[in-house]
Structures are given as C-alpha cells and as structure tokens.
Amino acid sequence: MTSRKQALAASSVLLVAAAMALPALASSHREAPFITTAPKVDGTDFYMFRSYESGRADYVTIVADYLPLQDAYGGPNYFSLDPNALYEIHIDNNGDAKEDLSFQFRFKNTLKNAAVKVGDQQVAIPLVHGIGMTGTGDSSRINVVETYSVDVVRGDRRTGMRGALTDAHGGGASFTKPLDFIGHKTFGSDAGYEAYAAQYVYTVNIPGCGQQGRVFVGQRKEPFVVALGPAFDQFNLNPVGPAVGGNDTELADKNITAIALELPIACITRAGEPVIGGWTTASLRQARLLDADPASGNNTVERVGGAWTQVSRLGMPLVNELVIGLKDKDRFNASQPKNDGQFATYVTNPTLPAVLQGLFNVPAPTNLPRKDLIAAFLTGVKGLNQPKNVVASEMLRLNTAVVPTPAATQKNLGVLAGDAAGFPNGRRPGDDVVDAELRVAMGVLCTLNQKDVFGCVPGDAGAGGAPLTDGATVDASFFDAAFPYLKTPLPGARN
Fold first, then answer.
1. At what angle do helices 371-379 and 3-20 cross, to 10 degrees?
2. Structural domain boundaries, residue 189
C-alpha cells in the first residue's frame, strides 16, 4: 500500500470509532431501562479479533460478555446464566446486514440435591457448591451443575439450517460451565481455580466446517476499563488531562460471565470477502407465568412460552449508551442491523461534543450533519473493513485478512496508533475504545487528510488534536495471550 493510501485508510478508519462516541462513557452495563430488570441477559462487551495466541492466527476469537457488575462474594447462588434465555453470536459474512451464521447457546441447571445427615435425617444443604474443596478433575461436591449446548444456524436465525457443536474428544453435545470463583478455601488459590476452569475449554466439531474450533463459557474478571462513576457524574474528570493507568475503581473489583468462541477463518468467511460483521443478542420468551408454589427440586419458579423476543444487542462498543437517546434504548436492544436507519438522527447530530463543550469549554465540531459519523456508523471503512457490497447497518466489523499483532507489540489505540489489527478493525480486549472514541467525536478527522469529504471547514474542530481521555487506560498486558484471553475472575474470599 502506498503512503497516500495508508494515510487515507488511517484517516478513514477513525470514522468507525467516531460513530460510537456519543452521550456518555461506559460499556454496555445497565444501558437501557428494561435490561436493568434482567441482568442475566444484559450483554456488557463484545470482542472480535484474529486470534493472537501463538499458532492460532488462522482463527477468529469472539467473546460476548454478560451479567454485569458481579461482586465476587455474591453468594450463595452466585451468577448462573438464564436457562430460559437464548444467547446468540451472529456473523454477517456478505455485508447484507443479515446474519449468515448464528451460534446459539442454551443453558441448563441440574440440582444434585446434596444433603448432610442431621440426627437421623438427611437434610438438603443450602449451598450451590456443596461442602469441601473443589479442584481439577473433581467436581463431585458441586451441588448445582450448569451445562449448555451450542447450535450453529446457517441463514435466518429462526428458520435456517441448524446443527449442534460437539465435543471433539467425547462426541457429546453438552458442555459444562465451571462454577464461579467462590473463594480460595473452595478452590485452593487463584492458580487452583484457573486449573479447574481450564478443563472446561472444549475443542469442538462445527457442522459444515472441516476444521475444529474451541468454546468456553465461564466467569472472568471484568475486562472493561473506564472511570465509570465520574463519567456519569457530568464527566466529573478532566478529559484533557493525562491518562493515569487503570483508574477504573468501580469496575476493577467486578467479574462478568464470558461466552467465548474460537472459529476457523475459512469456515466463517465467503470466498473473495474477508470482512465479517459480528454482534451478540439475548432473547427471552414473550410470555412468563410465575409459579406460586414451585415444585420442590425443579430449581425454577416460572413457566415461559411464546416466540423468542430479543431484549439485548451489542456489536460496536458503547452504542446504546453513547448513541441512542433514552426513549429509544429498549427499541435498539430489540432491533436488528437491517433496520438501523431508524436511529440515523442520533448519528448525524451527536450530543457528546456539545456536552463536553458546555462542561469544559472545548469546541465541538460544527460540520453538521456529521458526514464522518454517518459513513462510519453504517458502512465500515472502505479499504480496511468495509464489505464489497455493504448494506448500511451497525455491527463490529473485522477484516480477517489483516495479520494479527502479537500481544507484546499491540497499540491500545488500535488504528489511531498505526496498529491496523486493532479497534475499530474488530476489537481486542486491550483496545482502549473510550479514549479512541472521545478523540474522534471531538473532530480529529477534521485535522487529517480528506477532511473535505466529511464537510469540515478550516477551524471546524478546535479540539480535534487534543489527547482526550477518561483517565483510565487498558492494554494487552491486562489480559492473557491465549484463549479465552480474559483473566481469571476475582475470588469471593482469599486465604
């Protein structure tokens, strides 16, 4: 690529980040009114990147995080996923704004009904983890076992052809989710828990794919880094001050639940089109009846029925919090990419620049409607991660032809720092999406080449070159360099 083309691609790629940097700063935790009532199906973060684990560059890793703001000590029932929900990861591999592949996860809780003898009676214990230490190869004391199945659906998510992923070593279609990290007395140590959890990383056969993949579902340390409280307190921080490194006191002591897939590139792309789009959704049944007298041992108090109804959606980071107005947040969570035109106004006239101008006297861009944000929000970036025949829609887009950057040399600002394998070309755990999006929202495109394409005029973006930050940084060193990449969760108690 010539230097001119590189400059054009670099300036263009900033668009994708800009599109998402609107009214507030946080990942998708409690981002819409309804989803606050259903945390088990609240998607918090979505990652999609070429695997940078040694020897795995021919794979794409996708991680969808759910169930936000978990306190490690949150017993006695901890953080199982919803057995009455449908969790999905969707891939569009031809740019038409519709899913071509959907990986569907369904969960099941099995109560062992462990008991202890008290006098002459066997009495059920009140704990999900039973009594005694649990370790690698021994889960006999766990009182509630959480398992899941994974189907791949080709075509429409509800009517397409489906098949079950199976364990490459045992052939079964049921997988086990490790118990959450209750504490050191239960699992011995951080290392003891990680050894226990690692046995639930499965190599899987994928119907219609000649190569195997991997899957893991389990509790992980919260990966997102942001000054969460100050951001919502009318930006009670200094966005033009220096980054201080990991200053996310609100999220630093939280866990999440990760749904992770590693998929062969050859099995999720189409010939001649290396760009894929991805997003995650969660759905519930339309009808729910509460049982006034739940049957003993069935571990549920509700009966559900009716069609699946989508209640959570996440592709590019920060969209529902940073783009969508409060009145439409539930609507966005229920929407599909093919219908994203209904949200265009939130992109053409973003509110974050105006808020920052009012609070900190930093000049907001005046090139309204924001042509730069329109292009980025709906199409991806031509020459980097825009499909050949793109239909305007919002999702995280990844060019699988771009070689992954090893963890040791990744730049946490991604393309803004010259690392084409990072955000917004997909998203890695170590990409600092908050700082990247702040800077682009305030008009950095208007300081670069091709600014006329975006309707910029001289002096339009006085803060376009400012190193805006929320004061909290993240990079690849915060994470493991192997699947599933996210770190061991925090324990509920330490020795």
1. 90
2. 3-478
